[in-house]
Amino acid sequence: MGVYALNYFNTGEERIMSLCEVVLVFAFFHTSEILAQQNTTEPRNHKLHYHFEALEFTSVTDAKSPVWDHDANILYWVDALNQTVHALNYTSKQHSHKHIGMGELNVVLPIAGSKRLLLGIQSFVYLFDWDEPCPFCLKYIAALDKGSPGNILNEGKADSRGRFWGGTRGPLYGSSILQDQGALYSLEQPKFEPTVQLKPVSATNGITWSLNNSILYFIDSETKKIDAFDFDAAKGRISKRRTILNLAEYSFMKASSTPVAHSVTIDRNGYLWVALMHGGAVIRVNPETKKIVGKYKLPVSRITSLSWAGPNLEELIVTTSQRNMEKEEIEKEPLSGALYILHKLGTGGVPDHKLSFNDADNF
Fold first, then answer.
1. What's the whole-model pTM score?
2. Domains along the chain with CATH numbers
3. Residues at the annotated binding site for a divalent metal cation?
4. What positions does the entry give for a divalent metal cation binding (predicted)?
5. What angle do CA 238, 228, 77 make, to 5 degrees?
6. How many Å apart are CA 27 and CA 111, to the nearest integer?
């Protein structure tokens, strides 16, 4: 086991720094057992070996929405509460960040053929210029959940045709979300007018597609379920909702509160990887057998999002949070809010789709 601590104090909101200056690295070999449902036939004691590193970026308290730009070799993510966009260049090893200051920021997404990014702030969708001062760095695209000013765009990804799929949640009171106030939308060029795909939704926290793009996997965290829809890629429509996994049927590591599915991605073998908020783990799910086949324990409980990254898409990026944590909880889990990189998982991801937006740089 090795532990390396390097101090860094931020002297400017847009300072660019090397990875070595800004991270606390905690890497070791870890084992975990497959989590088994009571009536499952999956093996119970198969050991899973993997490495992980924790990258502690000192300004991050509520990290989420990691996304890999495979053309630029850049990992993007956001700090929702600090309203900051982050970027880590895998080639130069430089980390940069930019404070937006326009409200809760939950989504960042690369745009095909553009230097701009898409951002989800509050319940609005914007184009974002990294090099422009804010608020002039933002160009308005669309508003979601009109008439519900307390709602938040909570999750967003692009499908294989470059449409944006974004889901909202209702107002948050402490750790409780006002139920059934949100919706799942799609937006596409040229007008980017929101189309309601699913309503009501309490808290959209996971969107991904099967390898052949015929299924959309979806998480409304408040249901504690992972659901699937038939997906018509040509028309951009979903149908035939069914449940892949009900977390209420599982026992998770004696967690202090009930774990919640909080993000989903897919690997190159067609298995789903799901972040467990309050569960301190990532699980791997076989959507065909509807069974959990792997569990990967981390030293923090509040896991927010995950995505594949790296030149070979074999590193699983897992974001975490300190949101709503008491001082005593943070003292017990000092690396809450860090990014984790899981290695040697025996699989990898597929490239994320980018948003299609013709002439986005001149919009």
1. 0.87
2. 51-343 (2.120.10.30)
3. 154, 205
4. 154, 205
5. 90
6. 33
Among 141, 95, 79, CA closest to 116: 141
Residue type, 28: F
Which residue ranges are tagged as binding site? 154, 205
pLDDT recorded at residue 60: 78
Q: Which two tokens stand for residue 95?
A: 């980390």
Q: Average pLDDT of each block of 10 consecutive residues along the chain (363 residues)?
A: 26 34 33 32 41 68 95 96 94 92 96 97 97 95 93 97 97 83 96 96 96 98 95 98 91 64 96 94 95 92 95 95 90 90 93 96 92
